[in-house]
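ok, trying the design again with the full structure, not the truncated one.
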């Protein structure tokens, strides 16, 4: 197991990095070192890349757990402070001082007698209900609870993100089947293993997007910009790629290592077999 300092070094981060910074660094390094991007005949470099990916995964998992642990400890400390505050006795305050008024006292004394007046005064200062009321009036409000964060939901099937700016966003493993992403900016987005089955990606900008092992079966990619995208291991069976930007001249600028293209309509209109 890697120690925290090593984890930060592996992901090329400074100690104390946020969860967002950890995820971004992980995505960038996986994109650079993914074995599918290396020629199959270079076994030495493939083995090195596989070892790098293992280190990236372990470092990311360790730092995620560390950050989550810090968040739980902060919440527990806040809860303990609130509990201690509520359990502590209220600050002692001296009984109120009343200035003697001979006229009022004589009138009260004449009606109830000195003993009843004394009993009334005692009950006013020693009755439990009265004391509780006084504490409630003088006690300060408890500190606010820390904001709660909920993890994003992975099922985004059918969502409408037409024309949205999603550049560099992380959608790893999300279900975006049947989603409307036409004209959306997904440049440099991390779409590893994302499900885009029958999604509308017409004229979407997927420049340098990481689509490793993504499910793009029967997706509409007409006119999409796929220059620099990595589609290694992606499922493109039945996808419509007519007019998609994938090359410059005779040079293919999309990585399709291990991609499944059976039945896909290619940019020039022919069906891949």
């Amino acid at each position: 197991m890697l120690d925290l300092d090593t984890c930060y070094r592996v992901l090329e981060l400074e100690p104390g990095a946020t969860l967002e910074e950890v995820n971004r660094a992980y995505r960038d390094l996986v994109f650079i070192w993914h074995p599918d991007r290396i020629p199959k005949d270079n076994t030495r470099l493939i083995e090195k890349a596989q070892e790098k990916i293992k280190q990236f995964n372990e470092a990311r998992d360790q730092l995620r757990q560390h950050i989550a642990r810090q968040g739980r400890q902060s919440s527990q400390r806040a809860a303990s402070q609130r509990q201690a505050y509520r359990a502590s006795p209220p600050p002692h305050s001296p009984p109120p001082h009343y200035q003697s008024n001979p006229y009022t006292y004589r009138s009260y004394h004449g009606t109830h007698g000195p003993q009843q007046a004394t009993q009334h005064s005692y009950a006013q200062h020693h009755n439990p209900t009265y004391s509780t009321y006084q504490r409630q009036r003088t006690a300060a409000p408890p500190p606010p609870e820390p904001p709660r964060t909920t993890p994003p939901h992975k099922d985004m099937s059918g969502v409408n993100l037409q024309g949205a700016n999603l550049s560099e966003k992380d959608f790893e493993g999300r279900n975006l089947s049947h989603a409307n992403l036409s004209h959306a900016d997904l440049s440099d987005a991390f779409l590893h293993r994302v499900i885009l089955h029958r999604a509308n990606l017409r004229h979407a900008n997927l420049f340098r997007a990481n689509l490793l092992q993504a499910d793009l079966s029967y997706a509409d990619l007409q006119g999409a910009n796929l220059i620099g995208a990595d589609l290694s291991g992606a499922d493109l069976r039945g996808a419509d790629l007519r007019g998609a930007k994938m090359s410059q001249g005779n040079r293919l600028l999309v990585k399709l290592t291990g991609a499944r293209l059976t039945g896909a309509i290619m940019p020039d209109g022919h069906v891949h077999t």
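Keeping the full-length input from now on. The mean pLDDT is 81.
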